[in-house]
Design a protein that fits this description.
alpha/beta; Rossmann fold; Dihydrodipicolinate Reductase, domain 2; 2 domains; nine-stranded mixed β-sheet; six-stranded parallel β-sheet; 15 strands; about 25% strand; globular; binds nicotinamide-adenine-dinucleotide
């Protein structure tokens, strides 16, 4: 018996929707995209025309009422996620929401509660988990190949890679800068590979030294995190830049392990400087700063060996191929074939960790997450 196709709607017709969500949903044989909403009517129309989507709206509420989607991909800026995801869940849709799920951990908890009340699934777009290198690292760690990971050191440093589109640089709309962009991804990745220990304390500092002035430099969209280009360009306004461009932090975890984290959109370092080391009792994991390369460090008898795993080729061959895997996973979860791979506790743990870093930076001291309970 043929089953009905999932009716998918998109909220926010910008870069990640056009570059990843829409093409990935279109490649799902059991889904069809029925509507797109964007508060800028020209963006809604352009996205609908580009991908032959039948319904375009400048109101997500109108779109939910009219199109009655089974699934919604929330691809708007972070400050919209809570209101739009909750509205979609209450309208009976399953929701795939881009990262960061919310501006605060308290908002994230509310969103998961709304999903539970509605009896619908809420998947947070921690797409990095679906890159082959990271999925393999997680499998190595989970199968005991590296033992107990007690120390992780991750640096992902862009030289001049401030996103030149959207509202990533405006505190009132995004709450944070590079920590809420790259930091969310990297902290989630490290904690996932480590088996999900809770962040219990953070000491950090954030900086804004370069991005709030016009240096007149030549930069590319790819440097700013848009490898397939930017949809809906805007004129970049340095005067509005009021988030952090560089953050450094030391995190203590509940199992005694520690994480040292450095991320930048802008810093005077060679571009894409850094790397990721995860040190365990039986072995270690290493990634290059963009997580494109993975090595497993082990001993074999008397010999120290570095293993370069042979990984599947990206499918499709696209910089955002992880979104294809993420959406395929979501479809299987909606059908009841798999558990959602991103859990509420994990999302809240990451957001609480970032909140503690900001608080530590503001107060100039280590912040313990259980302070209020003492
Ligand atoms: N997982 C990833 O790898 C990845 C990559 C890029 C972006 N993202 C995330 O996706 C989200 C969007 O990023 P982007 O790069 O596509 O930004 P963007 O600025 O290119 O697109 C955002 C779109 O949302 C629209 N919009 C703004 N306010 C809205 C509202 N109230 N209602 C409906 N639409 C609204 C804008 O007009 C724009 O078209 C962000 O949360 C970002 O962090 C994730």
């Amino acid at each position: 018996m043929p089953t009905q196709k999932l009716r998918v709607a998109i909220i926010g017709g910008g870069t990640i929707a056009n570059a990843a969500h829409i093409p990935a949903w279109r490649d799902q044989p059991s889904a069809e995209i029925v509507a797109v909403a964007d508060s800028a009517p020209e963006n809604a129309r352009a996205t609908a025309t580009r991908h032959q989507i039948p319904h375009a709206s400048d109101s997500f509420a109108e779109m939910l009422a009219t199109a009655k989607p089974d699934v919604v991909s929330v691809c708007s800026p972070a400050h919209c996620h809570k209101e739009q995801a909750i509205a979609a869940l209450r309208a009976g849709a399953h929701v795939l929401c881009e990262k960061p799920l919310a501006l605060t951990s308290a908002d994230a908890i509310e969103m998961f509660r709304a999903a539970e009340t509605a009896g619908r699934l809420l998947l947070v777009g921690q797409s990095m988990r679906f890159y082959n290198q990271i999925a393999a690292a997680r499998e190595f760690a989970a199968s005991g190949q590296v033992g107990e990971i007690y120390c992780a050191d991750a640096a992902r440093l862009r030289r001049r890679g401030v996103p030149g589109h959207g509202v990533f640089h405006v505190r009132a709309l995004s709450r944070g800068g590079v920590l809420y962009d790259l930091g969310v991804h990297i902290l989630d990745t490290l904690l996932w590979i480590m088996g999900g220990p809770a962040v219990v304390a953070a000491s950090g500092m954030t900086f804004t030294k370069l991005s709030n002035r016009d240096e007149g430099l030549i930069t590319s969209e790819a440097e700013g995190g848009a490898p397939v280009g930017v949809f809906n360009k805007r004129t970049y306004d340095h005067d509005r830049f009021d988030v952090e461009e560089l953050a450094t932090a030391f995190l203590r975890l509940g199992n005694g392990a520690v994480i040292s984290l450095r991320v930048s959109w802008a810093a005077n370092v060679p571009d894409n400087a850094g790397g990721v080391w995860m040190m365990g009792t039986e072995g270690g994991l290493w990634f290059d700063p963009r997580f494109l390369d993975l090595r497993l460090v082990r001993n074999m008898g008397r010999y120290q060996v570095d293993v370069t795993p042979k990984l599947p080729a990206p499918a499709p061959n696209h910089p955002f191929y992880a979104h294809w895997k993420e959406i395929a996973h979501f479809v299987r979860a909606i059908r009841g074939e798999e558990e959602l791979c991103v859990r509420k506790e994990e999302v809240v743990n990451v957001l609480r960790g970032l909140e503690a870093i900001y608080r530590s930076a503001a107060e100039g001291r280590e912040v313990r997450l259980d302070e209020r309970a003492q």
